[in-house]
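Cross-posting from the modeling subforum.

Setting up a comparison between two proteins and wanted a second pair of eyes on the formatting. Protein 1 (sequence, then structure tokens):
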Amino acid sequence: MTETQSAAPRIVRYGELVPCKTAFIDAHTPGSDQKENFTIIGGGVSESPDQHVHIRDTPGFNIGAAGQPPKCRNSLHSHRTAEVFFVLKGRWRFFWGRWGDAGEVVLEEGDIFNIPTGIFRGFENIGTDYGMIMAILGGDDAGGGVIWAPQVIEDAQAHGLVLGENGSLYDTKKGAILPDGIGPMPVLSDDELRAFPEPTTLDVVPHYVARYWDLMALSDKQPASVIGADALLRDKPGFDVDFLSRSSAPAGQYTVDQNEVLMPMRGHWKVTWDGGHDVLNPGDTCLFPAGVAHSVEPSMTGEASLYRVRSNDDPAGPTLAR
């Protein structure tokens, strides 16, 4: 590999994303059985060996996506590290709490949600067409899997899916059985469940949600700092997120010491580096390694916006307060 080739970014196109329809324990549960999970950068948290991973090397965080038709939902679960979503397509309702009734928020296209770590959360497509949300997960190993609310595990068993204590799924309707020495994933006890916070909508939305059109206004002169030190949203989840619009795109090439991922929301963005150039479209994901000089700018007139994610040295979890 030449020096020029090693400096080239790695790009995953939206139209080339490979879905997995059996990624999680609720893959057979009515109402959740039409989900598509995408693992773009890093191994993510999929429980299925069928999950395709586009880029296995991680830049300090994971990138994934969820695609769902209308009225399809993702069941209540929690993560050990951060989970940040922005809506690429559609209209989505996010809800949280032990039973999903502690609070909720509806997000439109371009809105971003830094979900507080350590709470049960779920989401559903409440739009009229197939929707897509892009996800950023903290840490290189995405925290070691998913913690499901007890009712999700119980419902899944009734429809043939059993999650082993090793984190792998077994489809009993296809004749799969748990290997010797591997038991089913135990459900959380009442004492363990009480340790999960139940924040209200007023606790969460003002501090963890940023609206697209607010970010467009804030990025008029310079990139809007969405997540990170002294940023708009609370918690430092192990990566920084900035929002760029046409008027705040950096002038010329720049180099940073962190790995950088570019995720266009609207418009077409030209990226250049020594020896090459390309155009990114909404839904594409572009990874530039640390130390590679590059530029990014809108390539056509009209609305243009982009989320930029950079690794940092923060732990892959929340600070809960500034």
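Protein 2 (same layout):
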Amino acid sequence: MNLLSLYYFVELAKELHVTNTAQKLYISQQNLSQHIQRLEQYYGVPLFHRKPKLALTYAGEQLYAVAVKILAEEHEFQNRLADISEKSIGNLKLGIPSYRGQICLPEILPRFYAKWPNIKIELCNESSNKMEEHLYNGELDIFIGVMYQDNPKLESSTLLTDHIYLVCSDELLQRHYPDSWQKLKEESLSGVELAHFSKIPFLLPASSMKLRKTLDQCFLDAKVKPNIFLESQTTELFMSLYPHNYGAFFCTQMRLPTLLAAHPDANAFPLALKKSLINHRLVLAYHKERFLPEYAHDFIEITKDVFDGIAEVRPH
């Protein structure tokens, strides 16, 4: 048993697909299978059910829980060594949604690498819930994303109060509210009530996404059953469909510059409920009980400074 085999086992346990995991790890399927077989021989138990589809056995579930902790401790030890190394060689595991990374990392990374050229940054782009879980388990050093509730073991700092906007074209408004669309548009500039948009079809995030859960609660509170035209995991798809006027969609404030750059005439109304604007709390979080090297603390400070600038240019 070695750490590499444990690492390969954990990655396969997450993916539960040999071909995809092997490609992700840049190894052959045969090599991956050999590492799993060595672990099974070492422990004397099967770790995966092979049929009807790949799944962890009970022993595999127990090993996964332990292996995650072992690899987290080993990563923390590497961080401690990096902190005392003269060459400052190490890695930083960062969880951040891809679209947020596209906005902030081009400003963060040049400043970070000017001081820490030998640090490798590993990016994780999964759901916010999953990345928060990885952070708690020690599989990530830093998480940048949405958190609804504070965790006593996680240190979190608010980076941005990310308002939610309803994006709706003039054509959609005219089609569904021909006699009152201009008045509706003017009234919605300071905050849109979903009850006033009940006739409009919607493009909504997938039900598993945090934004969708917020929106579902808003629809429920407004006593509106949305007419759903399309659901998707990516807001980028909705932005690309904007000119076709299939329906209104929602986006966070952080996405607005990208939207308005592509469609300057787009209406973006801040979402409100009982005259209170709806928003997401975007945070930077790390585990209080995990060691963070100096370069990780520098990354945190640079990130906070960059988001201070992002917050200043957002519309109010």
